[in-house]
Structures are given as structure tokens and as C-alpha cells.
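Structure ticket #2291
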Amino acid sequence: MNPPNVEANSPTSLLVSSFLVRANEGRTLRAFGHAIVVLLDGKQTGGKFTAFLNMTPPGGGPGPHYHEREDEWFYIIEGRVSFLLNGTWTDLFPGDCVYSPRGSVHGFKNNTDQPIRVFINIAPAEFENFFAEAACEWAQPEPDMNRLRTLDEKYELHGVDATYGTDKI
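Resolution: structure written out below.
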């Protein structure tokens, strides 16, 4: 019996080593009232995914929307999160996890008086650039809402009304 051909079985990824991000080493972006700590971005994952921690103040959260290009999964770390899941707002608690494939309408809201923390992965990567560009706009004394709508279009993000009507954009 011949040994396996190592070259034929080698990984297809260009990433050949693990990558560590220690506490407080992520890049913090501030947009839409959220603090978004990018832990792993597309450069670090070879474009496979982005991982970030989203901290949302009371009353905050993205309304119903869908992505044309990205799948997302959410892991609740802290607080009670109202999540739009299959057309129904559902309360999620620490330890709960939700997967939202591209094209599925979803959103979440902090309906409590305490901040919430949600660990979010998005695949493929590059959506972190949406947050980076939005953070630049939110850093302005008066954010340009037309510019933010342009970002929605650029990143194929579509806001919908609560009854799944047409795009709000």
C-alpha cells in the first residue's frame, strides 16, 4: 500500500497558523449607537468570516433587514435580546444562539434598561468594512443619512418594514 499523497491532501487555505486576539485587542467601531469590537476580520481569516462583539445600549438594535451576501450567527453573551426570528420577535438569553442565512429577514433590539452583548459571526468576511465606513460617518457632528443609505446599497443590506414589506432604502 502506498502512503497518501501529502500534496494532494494539503489544506486549500493560505492560513497555516492559528491567530490569537487577546481581551481588549479588538478594533472598536462606534456606529448606530452600538460599540462593535472587531475581533477577527477578513484579512485575518483569509476572507472566510468576520467575528465581532456587539454592545447595544437600551433601546438600540438593528431593525428588520436581510443581507444578500452574508450568513450570520449570533451568540447571546449578556442581557435579554429581542430577536426577529422567522417572523416572530422572540426573547433570547445568555447562551442562546441563532443562525440567519443570507436572504432571511432578521433583526434584534434591546428592550431592557441595561446594555446587551452579542457575539456575531458573519460569513464571508468584508461586512466589517460596512461598520468601519458607517463609524466614520457617525463620527461626524451630523451624520449624513443619505451616505449611510449608500452604504446599505454598497453592502447589499436591505432594511424592511416590520411586516416584511418593501425595502425601506
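Closing remark: Residues 128-138 form the longest helix (11 residues).
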